[in-house]
């Protein structure tokens, strides 16, 4: 730009008094770099066009933790209350890695509530994580962690009469349901359909969010529950009436929601960064760079190089 086209100092504040959003591109719409992204500011874009919403002190934070690897995951068993035998040794190690991260970072310290589905793999996961959820009192002493509350609403899809069967026996008795074409078909007598499951999880999430307004809630649950939360609480077409994502949610990973009134904001999905460099305990052995750091796409557990 020529000198003749430069705005005069009298018509534009200097860079020392006002951030220059013109060079920030898309980031300028987030309110980032304004110095006051969570409140009114002459340097922030109008609220109606911001892409980064403010944090509300009254919001509820719900962190969904998928359980560690379970016996039924590796044995090919339908793992309801009968078929679930808890975690494998590898599964316990995966949750130990997550607990070590949380103890070091304190990111979930002082949690107000800890829920688990009633299935042993989730209850065991919650018990391992609990010490990392304790807060720090005014005297610097760690407080007691929240007690585990078992909530069936956070269970994986209820299998009904399929519970405890291996998948070959399941197919022999009940055929092969296809929820992509018939999401309303129950998995087996006494069990749930895919649509029934997603709506049950949605109702449970709403009840817990209302019960713990403004609090931090941790839930030890299942991959299906994580997917159901995304179908129910993000604008997915047909999310509550049959859509499926078939996501690959890691064992012992974190998915975080912020709930402010009726608005649900996804702050993070499938955070498994703590599994990096664990030599396969968390996400499978991965390649490493010359510096010794494993390169994985954060959240998926898949190598990117």
How large is the radius of gyration?
23 Å
As residue ranges, the low-confidence spans are 1-38, 283-305
**Distance N terminus to C terminus?**
42 Å
Report the β-strand fraction as a percent range. 5-15%
- Average pLDDT confidence is 83
Instruction: List the secondary-structure elements in sequence, H or E.
Output: EHHEHEHHEHEE
CATH superfamily caption: Phosphoglycerate mutase-like
The third-level CATH topology is Rossmann fold
- Major β-sheet strand ordering: 3-2-4-1-5-6
Number of helices: 6
Alpha-beta content class: alpha/beta
Task: Give the biggest beta sheet.
Answer: 6 strands, mixed
The CATH C-level name is: Alpha Beta
CATH architectural group: 3-Layer(aba) Sandwich
Based on DSSP secondary structure assignment, what is the total number of beta strands? 6
Helix content: 10-25%
The protein's oligomeric status is: single chain
The structural domain count equals 1
Form type: globular
Notes on the structure:
The protein has a single domain (60-275), classed as Rossmann fold (3-Layer(aba) Sandwich), CATH 3.40.50.1240. Residues 1-38 and 283-305 have low confidence and may be disordered. The chain has a 6-stranded mixed sheet with strand order 3-2-4-1-5-6. It has helices spanning 71-75, 89-105, 120-129, 167-174, 194-211, 223-233, and strands at 60-66, 113-116, 148-150, 216-221, 254-260, 263-271. The protein has 6 helices and 6 strands. Helices cover 23% and strands 12% of the residues. With 305 residues, the chain is of the alpha/beta class.
Q: What would a concise description of this structure say?
A:
The chain is of the alpha/beta class and 305 residues long. The chain has six helices and six strands. The chain has one domain: Phosphoglycerate mutase-like (Rossmann fold, 3-Layer(aba) Sandwich).
